[in-house]
């Protein structure tokens, strides 16, 4: 396993995607999900990916998050070339340096909100006092300090996704990857979750890469990158990003 390549240059992008391709299958029936995508994701920014189903958004998220390997090209995350990592190295990368937020929340039903947030810290074997303090801090950050002892079934969809965001932040990741995090929420609740992610970028200094279909939610992003048929076809900075 290749070790982390020292402290990354703070002026360098958090993620550099270079001519990345990803195909599934072979021959005439092969599906080309990504066709030579190049993209830089700056540190401390919220980048939104837009595009219809099948455009390559989720494939790109999976590759950046080390959940899959490209068919060609190169991805560098915070100074580490993902192509140099074996499976154990990729596991460590996901555990220590990336937080994930999913459309389906992904909370453990039998655990309380606080226990769900603490799962990554338990996996890291953080001391109990440190773990409890971090959990309290994160639940307060996402506005759920008074819901620590409630289980997912006792929380609204928006509250569950806020717990998921807190859990993604538990190990102080460099990057948060969110795949349609508001897909199961109404528009108002969804916007509040996106605004929470925007606030997290400011308060925690974390970089966020999010895929979303909702045009309204893109307006809180620093940059919107559009994909179609596995290629980047457009990029813009919403007016609200001129902060």
From TrEMBL:
GO MF annotations for this entry? Answer: ATP binding
Instruction: Write down the SUPFAM superfamilies for this protein, in alphabetical order.
Output: P-loop containing nucleoside triphosphate hydrolases
Keyword annotations from UniProtKB, A to Z: ATP-binding, Nucleotide-binding, Transport
Put simply, this protein is called ABC transporter ATP-binding protein
Q: Which residues form the ABC transporter domain?
A: 15-242
UniProt superkingdom: Bacteria
**PANTHER family reported for this sequence:** ABC TRANSPORTER RELATED, IMPORT ATP-BINDING PROTEIN
Q: Does the keyword ATP-binding apply?
A: yes
Q: Name one Pfam family in it.
A: ABC_tran
């Amino acid at each position: 396993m290749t070790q982390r390549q020292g402290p990354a240059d703070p002026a360098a992008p958090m993620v550099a995607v270079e001519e990345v391709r990803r195909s599934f299958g072979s021959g005439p029936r092969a599906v080309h999900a990504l066709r030579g995508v190049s993209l830089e994701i700056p540190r401390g920014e919220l980048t939104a990916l837009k595009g219809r189903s099948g455009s390559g958004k989720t494939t790109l998220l999976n590759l950046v998050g080390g959940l899959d390997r490209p068919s060609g090209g190169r991805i560098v995350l915070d100074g580490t070339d993902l192509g140099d990592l074996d499976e154990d190295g990729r596991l460590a990368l996901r555990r220590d340096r990336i937080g994930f937020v999913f459309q389906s929340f992904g909370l453990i039903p039998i655990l309380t909100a606080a226990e769900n947030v603490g799962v990554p810290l338990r996996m890291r074997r953080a001391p109990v006092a440190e773990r409890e303090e971090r959990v309290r801090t994160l639940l307060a950050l996402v506005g759920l300090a008074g819901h620590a002892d409630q289980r997912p079934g006792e929380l609204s969809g928006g509250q569950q996704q806020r717990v998921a965001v807190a859990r993604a932040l538990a190990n102080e990741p460099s990057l948060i990857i969110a795949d349609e995090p508001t897909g199961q929420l109404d528009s108002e609740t969804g916007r509040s979750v996106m605004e929470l992610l925007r606030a997290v970028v400011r308060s925690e200094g974390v970089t966020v890469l999010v895929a979303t279909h909702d045009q309204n939610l893109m307006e809180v992003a620093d940059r919107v990158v559009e994909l179609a048929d596995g290629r980047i076809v457009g990029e813009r900075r919403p007016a609200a990003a001129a902060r």
